[in-house]
Amino acid sequence: MIAKILIKRRFVKENRQAILALLNKMRSIALNQPGYISGETLMQLDYPENMAVLCTWQSMEDWLTWKEKDERKTYEAMLDIYQTRPTEFEEYLLGTGVTDKK
Fold this sequence. Notes:
The chain is of the alpha+beta class. The chain has helices spanning 16-30, 60-67, 70-80, and strands at residues 3-10, 36-43, 50-57, 88-93. The chain has one domain: Alpha-Beta Plaits (2-Layer Sandwich), CATH 3.30.70.100. Helices cover 33% and strands 29% of the residues. It is globular, with a radius of gyration of 14 Å. It starts with a strand and ends in a 9-residue tail after the last strand.
């Protein structure tokens, strides 16, 4: 089942070019990962230091494999330097195919 991942970060107001370069590098690496479909980076209009990445994967397993890769964690650590709070991950499955079994 398709997975949609929302990654929310709040950055310092300085160093925007370095931050964007890291985000772009991370996406370029993700492009070659099994199951990666797409991604987009969003910047909040009134608070541009608040950014989110919405990415789509073929499955939650594909996403979790990428999330745990050392290469991704290296870039995540580089981004952490510029953040004012920890990264938040929200993981969703597309559609309503999951049912509650009672």
